[in-house]
């Protein structure tokens, strides 16, 4: 809208008309909606309502600092609009390193407890800096799966450190239901891990994608 002078909903409407049977997902920065400043609560609620009306399905709600009140507002707004609420935990540090005390496994589990208590439909790990390593992936996802056996777990990472494929395979083995990947030509580095690599690595295993 700002740079292309487009109606912000037109492209979503056109995509939904062409792709009627695939769920669409978006990021919602809690009380910041899709901007970088706090908006009035009614503006966030109205945005989610109109987004849902125009074809959005899943709202991945996050706060870069894991500030719970911001996230709860976004979750409430997305849910009130009839969307699927995917509350995302922003990951940093290294849960497999006992020297890292601030962002420990307990920190993430306590946050997950609050998000599940608030009624999230899906629990997400948002590894925006590509810090998840295989050992940390197994520990974090495995502990979440044990505590919340019936809540879908969705893991998102960036392949910045080059360990994304290994980390996502470890997440799958630990019980994640969905991991984010990118088509090979657009994968790697600050994008998501390679879809082709994941497919190849799981071929012939119980995680075989069938491709």
Characterization of this structure:
- The protein has 211 residues and is an alpha/beta fold.
- It has 2 domains: 20-86, no CATH class; 91-211, Aldolase class I (TIM Barrel, Alpha-Beta Barrel), CATH 3.20.20.
- The chain is 38% helix and 13% strand.
- The chain contains 7 helices and 6 strands; from the N terminus they run H-E-H-E-H-E-H-E-H-E-H-E-H.
- The chain has helices at 10-18, 41-53, 68-80, 105-117, 134-147, 164-174, 195-202, and strands at 25-28, 58-61, 84-90, 122-127, 153-157, 178-179.
- A 6-stranded parallel beta sheet has the order 1-2-3-4-5-6, with helices on one face.
- The longest helix has 14 residues, at 134-147.
- The chain is globular, with a radius of gyration of 18 Å.
């Amino acid at each position: 809208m700002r740079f292309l002078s487009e109606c912000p909903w037109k492209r979503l409407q056109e995509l939904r008309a062409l792709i009627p049977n695939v769920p669409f997902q978006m990021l919602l920065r809690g009380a910041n909606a899709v901007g970088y400043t706090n908006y009035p609560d009614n503006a966030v609620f109205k945005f989610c309502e109109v987004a849902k009306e125009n074809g959005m399905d899943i709202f991945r709600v996050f706060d870069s600092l894991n500030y719970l009140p911001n996230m709860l507002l976004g979750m409430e707004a997305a849910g009130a609009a009839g969307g699927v609420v995917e509350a995302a935990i922003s990951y940093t540090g290294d849960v497999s390193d006992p020297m890292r005390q601030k962002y420990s496994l307990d920190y993430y589990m306590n946050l997950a407890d609050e998000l599940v208590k608030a009624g999230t439909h899906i629990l997400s790990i948002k590894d925006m800096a590509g810090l998840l390593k295989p050992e940390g992936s197994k520990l974090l996802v495995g502990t979440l799966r044990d505590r919340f056996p019936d809540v879908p777990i969705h893991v998102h990472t960036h392949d910045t450190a080059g360990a994304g494929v290994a980390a996502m395979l470890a997440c799958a083995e630990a019980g994640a239901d969905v991991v984010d990947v990118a088509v090979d030509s657009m994968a790697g580095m600050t994008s998501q891990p390679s879809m082709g690599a994941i497919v190849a690595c799981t071929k012939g295993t119980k995680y075989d994608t069938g491709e």
